[in-house]
Amino acid sequence: MPLTKRELWLLNLYRNSELQGALLMGRLARSVTNPDVLVGATRHCATEASHAALLTEVIAKLGGTIDPSIETIQMHYSQDGGIPKAMVDLLVLSEILEARVLMSYREHLQRSDVHPNVRRTLQRIIQDEEAHSGENGWVEQLIAGMPPEQVAATLAKWRDIDEKVAEQLHSRLASDFPEEGTHLEC
């Protein structure tokens, strides 16, 4: 079963976004002195880089074209919300993005036309994402120590943007790949 154009575009979006996430976490790990942030960001960087590598490998293995020019999910968020500068913005956005990624990968797996190698790759990534998310995750623990009113305002801002971005990407998938169905990922 060959990759569809839609699936190839999505895999490149996922790949480029995972790579961008790794780069962002790597920059964070090089710019702070808090040991909790350093450990968490470094591990998170490694996990995201591993996911980018897995996606790159599955695209190549299946004969697809790896396209580093396809935008990242982060680009869509920064268009509406700007580039996070405050730690609370960065951490909250990271959590919103992680939730969106999990939702997108799960939705992707619901399609009947997912290549078996892609299915295995996304399932592995989902397991990794679930392992470093949730109440005991490093980001959640840091957010829990921040002023609640600041966190609430930041969450509201990025959740609104998240909904807009998801809607825009769903519309794009429907318009760019109408022949491949309207099942939504992103």
Automatic annotation (TrEMBL):
> Per its record, how is this protein called by name?
Ferritin-like domain-containing protein
**Taxonomy of the source species:** Bacteria, Pseudomonadati, Acidobacteriota, Terriglobia, Terriglobales
